[in-house]
Amino acid sequence: MVLEIQKPRPIWQIMFSTHHTDVGLLYLITSLAGLFMGGALALTIRLELFLPGSQIIADSMTFNRIFTVHGTTLIFLFILPFASAIGNYLIPIMVRYKDMAYPKLNAIAFWMIPPGFALVWLGFADFGWTAYAPYSVISAPGPAADMWIFGLKILGVSSILGAINFIVTILKCKHPDLPLSKIPLLAWAYLTSSLIMIVAMPTFAAALLMLLTDRLGVSGFFNPARGGDPIAYQHLFWFTFHPEVYVLVIPAIGFMYEIIPRFSRKPIFSHGSGVAAFILLSIVSFASWAHHMYATGMSFTEKTVFMVGTLAAVPASAMHVFNFLATMWGGRIRFATPMMWSVGGIALFFSAGAGGVVNTAMPLDFITHDSYWVVGHFHLFVMGTIAFGSFGFLYYIFPYVTGRMYNEKWGNIHFIVSFIGAVMVFFTQHVLGLYGMPRRIFDYPPFPEWVAMNQFASIGAMLLGIGAAIFLVNMIYSAAKGKEANMDDPWGIGGKYYYPYQQKNPHH
Amino acid sequence: MSHTEHIESIFRTSPERTAKMMAIVLGICIVGAAIFFGMWDYWTSAPPAAGKMSKAESATSIVPTGKEIPLSLAFVESSDFRTLAFNALPGESNNNPEIHANVGDKIIFDIVNNGKSFHAFGVTKDEEGFGSIISGSEVKSASNPLKPGESGQSQFIPSEEGSYYYICTVPGHREQGMQGKIIVGPKQSTETKTVQPTGVSHNFELNFVESSDFRTLAFNALPGEEGNNPEIRVKAGDAVTIKATNGGKSFHAFGVVTNPEDPNSLVWNSAINSASNPLKPGEFGEVTFTADTPGAYYYICTVPGHSIQGMQGKFTVE
User: Fold this and answer.
1) How distant is the Cα of A4 from the closest Cα of chain B, in angstroms?
2) Using CB atoms, which residue from B13, B36, B47 is nearest to A3?
3) In which element (H, E) is residue A239 found?
4) Most buried among A106, A496, B188, B240, using CB within 10 Å?
5) What's the pLDDT at A136?
6) Is residue A70 included in any domain, yes or no?
7) Closest Cα to residue A290, out of A280, A301, A282, A277?
8) Which of B4, B7, B10 is the mutation pick for testing A, counting most A CBs within 10 A?
9) Would you say residue B4 has pLDDT above 50?
């Protein structure tokens, strides 16, 4: 489990290894690079919006490029690789197999990420992470836009290969003594999210190819000048990326399923309901894509269908939340850093879900559509739930990866600062949306309410930035000179719960 | 399944290893940043081919009359922001002035934002909405509007008779009153043509042909064969009728131009179909026009790229 599985090796041996922990480490470092680079862009955006008018960004084109790469990076180069990193570390151990099912495929899936990373970051395309037609077809300047399309293509293939690997590892390589119903909920999370990925991702891969040939002028799928339909692109895009939201959030929920019982010193309240909720989420994730498109002139019937399909995700999500609460209830909770992140993540997950119910009600959607409400809602989910779960799990796995302990006090401060910051930014953005501020704007009229709320949100973003700086220093310093961790029980929790680095469950 | 359990000693990360890994990550980022910023202008230098084509298609052949109509417009708002208008609020004089022009006249707009909100200017043929703004007529846009006090200039040459509207392109502002009418009358020639029709008419037949690998395109016969891209010579004032047949397997369209590499430099309404609505294989079309000005012209296939591949011939007016 630890970084140095046998003995200290040259770094290039780790880089070109196919062992699951080595590939996991590569994924982890790449995803953290993505986190800090994408986060720096977020801070640039918030600084620009601190006051009306142009502050630090010269023109709106540069602003568009920045938020495009910000979104693309944090989704495809932070959240997804981070989930793959943790899966690589833990899934083979949880299903008690020596490695991933296809170690070389695993390494290939990782090594597709750096070229994708380079293409997205060198080009800096300007059409938003959604790349909506017709702008992306007839106006977005190349080669940046073409590089983004190729980069996403590569990252998409990488995700599909990773998903295949997880599914085969879990279903075919688990220990024969271990029934599928008994594998930990984190492994269930990876199984369901990988299944969603495999069904959803090829659609976007096809849409990207169509977009590319449209841009070259040899086809006209989405080009109205050639009889194409830009709305078709939105359908293809959201058919992939609404389920993709669940691909992002399900591993984060799985992380919480590892952390919460451990630090509550209680077994999980209901393993079965967790499994059921994962399966339910993976099915209903495909019934809601067009709720992103209510404003494109859909019929009342279609809107109703997608509204009901979206609301169907609420019970499944609530099952997870209640499962967490019931697990914590009556437990002797130890609020170590990973537990704080998980509990904070649950609180924000609940808030984001409540906002989502408002969004999916189609009459209300017309008020919030394309406003800052949407930005706030989406970010509350990805930052408040997914990134919080990921931060918690990174602190949780840190001693097992490095053999050293992170600084608990600075970990707590990171959480507190980030929690306050996240609430300040993303709750405020909801209200800004209701005050009419459209999303993706570079400049805004100096209405006093808008200015005040934007400044409040920007201060929150600075708090998130300060938290991230504390986190970075803590990680680097602790990896180099941190206290040596007690590998049997880093947090001194006691009890007989098995820790992920152990090869064998003590209950067996 | 193979699975071994053994007591292993624990190895922990060291400061040297951490520093090495950080150096690798930072090094990659610095090299990447050097490439990115070093080539800053390159990354957004090439507009997509699809966009270039649709621009080429939308441009029509307007012969400017040379007459210029200058016009100053100011965005104004009522104090409660509910009523918006150009120059003056409704009920006052000079509110949303109506413009009368003829096809080919150049209207020059001088736009200034005298309000407190953001505005942008454009001319459209649509009776409602803020889409399909005629290219060239816009001053800023809804996403990058004129701020209070700012001003800008644009021009517009109507290409057909009828009504156009000048509007504020910020969504909603047109409905609140920011729109005015441009009434375009028929083309009036300010000068009499130097050449009178001669009454002579010519008929030419042209055939689009392609080499089997589609790399070489030509009229009537491929290069090297007899009758390849025949030169057409007429006298100024002659009526010319062209019958173009698509004998190839691809899509083609016909036009007489001044620059063989630019399908937009079309003259005399000589087009048969267009790149967006081309002749399909086997179809043919006819056009009759008067070659009124002497000079050297070219007849080409107006589908972008085809004239460069060889579909062009000389058209000389004496």
Assistant:
1) 6
2) B13
3) helix A230-264
4) A106
5) 93
6) yes
7) A301
8) B10
9) no
Q: Do B43 and A504 touch (CB under 8 A)?
A: no
Q: Do residue A98 and residue B143 have CB atoms under 8 angstroms apart?
A: no
**Amino acid code (one letter) for A108:** I
CA distance B142 to chain A (A): 10
Number of domains observed in the structure of chain A: 1
CB B167 within 8 A of CB B179: yes
In a domain, A496, yes or no: no
For residue A294, what is the DSSP state? G
CB contact under 8 A, B48 and A29: no
Candidates 3.40.50.300, 3.90.550.10, 2.60.40.420, 1.10.40.30; CATH matching B68-185: 2.60.40.420
CA trace torsion A9, A15, A18, A22 (10° rounding): 70
> Which domain CATH number covers A322?
1.20.210.10
Residues spanned by the domain of A278: 15-481
In terms of CA atoms, which chain A residue is nearest residue B119?
A: A445
Q: Which of A94, A117, A122 to mutate to test the interface with B (most CBs of B within 10 A)?
A: A122
Contact flag A216-B53 (C-beta cutoff 8 Å): no
- Higher-pLDDT residue of A37 and B3 is A37
- What pLDDT is attached to residue B188? 65
Look up residue A156 and give its amino acid: G
User: Tell me, what's the pLDDT at B3?
Assistant: 47
Q: Identify all chain B residues contacting A8, using CB atoms and an 8 Å cutoff.
A: 11, 14, 17
Q: If you count residue pairs, one on A and one on B, with CB atoms under 8 Å apart, how many are there? A: 133
On whether residue A487 sits in a domain, the answer given is: no
Q: What's the whole-number mean pLDDT along residues B256-271?
A: 78
pLDDT number for residue B56: 57
Q: What's residue A392's pLDDT?
A: 96
Using alpha carbons only, what angle is made at residue B146 by residues B140 and B150, rounded to the nearest 5 degrees?
120
Highest mean pLDDT among A318-322, B66-70, B174-178 belongs to A318-322
pLDDT higher than threshold 80 for residue A35: yes
How is the beta sheet containing B106-113 ordered, strand by strand?
B84-86, B68-77, B106-113, B151-156
**Per-position DSSP letters for A137-159, written without gaps between them:** IIIS-BTHHHHHHHHHHHHHHHH
For residue A99, which of B4, B169, B67, B199 has the smallest C-alpha distance?
Answer: B4
Inter-chain touch A138–B51, beta carbons under 8 Å? yes
From chain B, pick out residues whose CB is under 8 angstroms from the CB of A226. Answer: 50, 54, 276
pLDDT digits (tens, 9 = 90+) for B232-248: 888 877 888 888 888 88
Q: Are residues A480 and B19, on separate chains, in Cβ contact within 8 Å?
A: yes
Q: Is the pLDDT of residue A51 over 70?
A: yes
CA distances to A299, A389, A394, A479, B192 from A255, rounded to whole Å, are 40, 6, 10, 22, 83
Q: How far is CA A362 from CA A238, A288, A296, A365, A380, in A?
A: 17, 12, 12, 5, 20
Residue A402 with chain B: CB contacts under 8 Å: 12-13
List chain A residues with CB under 8 Å of B37: none
**Which chain A residue lies closest to B143 (C-alpha atoms)?**
A441
Count of residues for chain A? 508
C-alpha closest to that of B302 among B248, B258, B250, B266: B266
Question: At residue B246, what is the residue type?
Answer: N
Top-confidence residue, B186 or B164:
B164
Mean residue pLDDT of chain A comes to: 91
Question: What is the ipTM for the molecules in this complex?
Answer: 0.84
Of B248, B244, B296, nearest in space to B274 by CA: B244
Helix axes A300-311, A337-360, angle to 10 degrees: 160
Give the minimum alpha-carbon distance from B281 to chain A in angstroms, rounded to a whole number. Answer: 18
Mean pLDDT throughout B9-24? 85
* CA distance, residue A87 to nearest chain B CA (Å): 19
Determine whether A82 is exposed, middle or buried from the number of CB atoms within 10 Å of its CB (0-12, 13-18, 19+): buried
Q: Which CATH class is domain B201-317?
A: mainly beta
